[in-house]
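Note to self: keep these together.
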Amino acid sequence: MALVEGCKHSLEITVPVADVETETGRAVAQIQSRVKLPGFRPGKAPLGLVKQRFAGDIRQEVLDKLVPRFFQAAVQKDNLQLVGQPNITDVHFHAGEPLRFKAEFEVAPEIELKEYRGLVITYREPEVTGPDIGTRLEEMREQKAEYVNEEPRPLADGDHALVSLESLSGVAEKISQDEITLKIGDEHTLAPFTENLRGAAPEESREFDVTYPEDYDRKNLAGKTVHFRATVKAVRRKELPELNDEFAKDLGDYKTLDELKEVPDAYVDRQIQMNLENQLRTFAAQGIDPRSIKLDWQKVRESQKERATRDVKASLLLDRIAEREAVGVTQEEIDREVQRIARQQREAVAVVRAKLQKDGTIGRIAGHIRTEKTLNFLFEQARKEAAK
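Structure:
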């Protein structure tokens, strides 16, 4: 094994001829059993003809079987903790010869743990005022608001209009949104939409021009005058949830509203991912296709690189401490987190669990719980000192 750089390694692996021939024979037999060739009954084509006609398929099946098997054996022999997938190159595969290939890959770094019990943690007592808590709770209510259809009537200021919108002229790429929500008379709704939709009732269509500001966020619309046809589909009202214990339970691991008021920042931390999803839904509701948002993803990646590197180092360190302290995760803890997510998404637990298992999120949930338990362990072992 050769060390390339940092955590990058390479292996040159040789598969004995006997293993290659055994796997080749198995691949030929499998292909023979399922192919249909003119003049032969299914599964009865001569082996020589099968090898000739399907040489490429046979080669690929042999490689797909042998390369992962012998690579994993080599990694386990050297007790390497693989990270990611290997890059396989320099494949030498010829009849009657051993199979040889090169694998380049990364491994988890060796971490030398120093003393982590008794760490000194300085803290300040938080100063949270009543108005601060009230403002944050109102923001939470807004995030959990639901829109309910009302009886058909003309739109008035303050109404939330469900509208289908299409551009008829003025823009190169046609705008077509089947359902967007606009608040009539709101400061965030462009004035032409309010002025032309005010008084319109469901099933009524209106055509009008909208001139976008020069500094409008969507560059393809900035400074342009677009002729729209808008059809009102429904009049909706926004209903905010009551501030009670049930509201707190829906937000996470809180039993009462008073408990939620004590730790508003923790809610924010746990809701980062959901907030991002909500923002994307908001874009869609405003007629903005999230895919059309022009971002320089390379710059985004670069801007996150330092933080991501720091997070990875912290994660590796915490994993190592968890191993030493035998910190584990129980099925009950995972079930409790799945139930919390189901409450947030207002879906059945079984449905949410199936989705999380399908996309691999269950494993990440277990990892997150283990990390939290490790951090709690470190906190319990630490010396707490008030900041001066």
